[in-house]
């Protein structure tokens, strides 16, 4: 596929910008079949806004993103090993490391 330099208009700031051959090749390698809507400055500003949200996303900010949750340090109730869990433990409930939790689940 042959690419040529294209002049585009940003959908956010309405400024004209150049979509270079190198950028087009990079977009094509990522599987994008469309031209960008935003200029590089507005794309960067949008990424910055999205990454500053209270729950942090890992991966692409859109499709396939997963949230990183706060982790809590605890001792496993079965083996005593230090571990982390994605929930705040309660004093009246046992908390297990991954291996012990798997063993407890199998026994049920």
Description:
With 108 residues, the chain is of the alpha+beta class. It folds into two domains: 62 residues, no CATH class; 36 residues, no CATH class. Helices cover 29% and strands 19% of the residues. The chain is built from three helices and six strands. It has a two-stranded antiparallel sheet with strand order 1-2. The protein has a two-stranded antiparallel sheet with strand order 3-4. The chain has a two-stranded antiparallel ribbon with strand order 5-6. The longest helix has 12 residues. The protein starts with 5 loop residues before the first strand and ends with a helix. The relative contact order is 0.10. The mean pLDDT is 83.
User: What is the H/E string?
Assistant: EEHHEEEEH
Question: Which stretches are low in confidence, meaning pLDDT under 50 for 5 or more residues running?
Answer: none
User: How many helices in DSSP terms?
Assistant: 3
Largest sheet: 2 strands, antiparallel
Class computed from helices, strands and strand pairing:
alpha+beta
Give the strand content: 15-25%
Number of domains: 2
Shape: elongated
Number of strands: 6
Distance between the termini: 58 Å
What is the residue-mean pLDDT, rounded to a whole number?
83
Strand order of the largest sheet: 1-2
Radius of gyration: 23 Å
Helix content: 25-40%
